[in-house]
Amino acid sequence: MEAIILAGGHGTRLAGRLVGVPKAMAPVAGKPFLEILLCQLERCRCTRALLAVGYLHRVIKDYFGGSFGGMKLEYAVEETLLGTGGAIHSALALARENAVLVLNGDTFLDADYAEMLRFHSEERATLTMAITHQADVARYGGVLVSGRRILGFEEKCRSGPGWINAGAYVLQRDFSWPSALGERFSFEKDFLMREIGHLAPAAYEVKRFFLDIGIPEDLDRAQTELSGFVSASPDDGCAASRRDSHLGKLRTIFLDRDGVVNKKMPEGQYVRSWGEFHLLPGVPEAIARLNQSGLRVVVVSNQRGIARNLYTASDVETIHSELQNLLASHGARVDAFYICPHDDGECNCRKPLPGMFEQAVAEFRDISPTTSAMIGDSLSDMEFGARLGMKTILIERSPGRQDPGIEEARALADQRYCSLTDAVNALFKPGRGSWSNP
């Protein structure tokens, strides 16, 4: 993999926070922001990164030199301001691979960039753009999507949920640029917005953590929300890729939502809004601990209240967006949410059927049942995990309960705990391994 990082920005809106460094070197949890991006690329097995630098470029070159871990670093230096588009055009001339990843140097997206490159190839695209869903697109401007293609952009004045440009692209090295652009131009304003009609870039959807550090408020957020991605040093590897040795083959944790992450409503009632969503104690800290050990966290939730017209899929999306914001304030994140909006017998995705697992595999191709665990509080959760061959963890907040199916759930569970916190603490207890028997 080969990547270009646009690291030439001044950071005008961060002027009071940046002393003698360019925007890409803004300090985040004790490390330059650019180091977090390089760490992420190294985790995706990138072998060569081209840093498009300009303002105070010596600061970047003196700090990183010619390599980062096992990744070679080279520099495309702007002698005059080129804009984001001109910088990409210039750096592409130094590229060696046919398809090149391009990242904004002030944006973090928790994406699998190796998978994004595979998607780009499968789509036979000349340009692929990562998009992510936000609860309010007003600051960024929305992206109009149809199927796997981007059709246009919306002005920044519209508020409400929608897809936005996530600041990551894949371009062919021999990409054909319009001759009218000149040497200096903005990739987004002068190129994408004007040419979108005939470009129809491929849309790579990322349903994970996103943060743009371009304004002081978001740089402040980054200090806690990106702390789990910061490594101790370049030679130690990336925090998100380091794993405790006793975790064995475990790679992915599937979580049921109601009763594991948040308080469960009484039988027959549903969490219909964020106001009815009550996070259980210790959950952010437990999820952050899983994140920091390199484990992927995926929520799979049956939501048949949608089929019964009690709330909408958009309501659930809003709840999950708010949950991500709350988790982020604790340095935690959920990597993906999958829901089943159907009632019994209407689909293949309602647990214990495997549809949501299949959706996860389609998005994260390295997921396997043998390297996954299912944590839930019901029989359908335990059946879901057991049928697929996962390790199964039953959460019993009231161990003496006699719910329908609870005895069968206990029989299918490899381990039982009173909370997600207890389960995660047991996982990391020295000598216990991946929830081995006491």
Write up what this structure looks like.
This protein has 438 residues and is an alpha/beta fold. The chain folds into 2 domains: 2-229, Alpha-Beta Complex (Spore Coat Polysaccharide Biosynthesis Protein SpsA, Chain A); 243-427, HAD superfamily/HAD-like (Rossmann fold, 3-Layer(aba) Sandwich), CATH 3.40.50.1000. The chain is built from 12 helices and 20 strands. It has helices at residues 33-43, 57-64, 83-92, 113-122, 187-199, 216-225, 283-292, 313-328, 355-363, 379-388, 406-412, 420-427, and strands at residues 2-6, 27-28, 31-32, 48-53, 67-68, 71-77, 99-104, 107-109, 127-134, 143-146, 149-153, 162-172, 202-206, 210-212, 252-255, 296-302, 336-340, 372-376, 391-395, 415-417. An 8-stranded mixed β-sheet has the order 5-6-4-1-7-12-9-13, with helices on both faces. The chain has a 6-stranded parallel β-sheet with strand order 17-16-15-18-19-20. It has a two-stranded antiparallel sheet with strand order 2-3. Helix 3 (83-92) crosses helix 5 (187-199) and helix 7 (283-292) runs parallel beside helix 12. The two termini are 43 Å apart.
What is the number of domains? Answer: 2
**Number of helices, counting only DSSP H or I runs of 4 residues or more:** 12
Order of neighbouring strands in the sheet with most strands: 5-6-4-1-7-12-9-13
Give the integer mean of the pLDDT values: 88
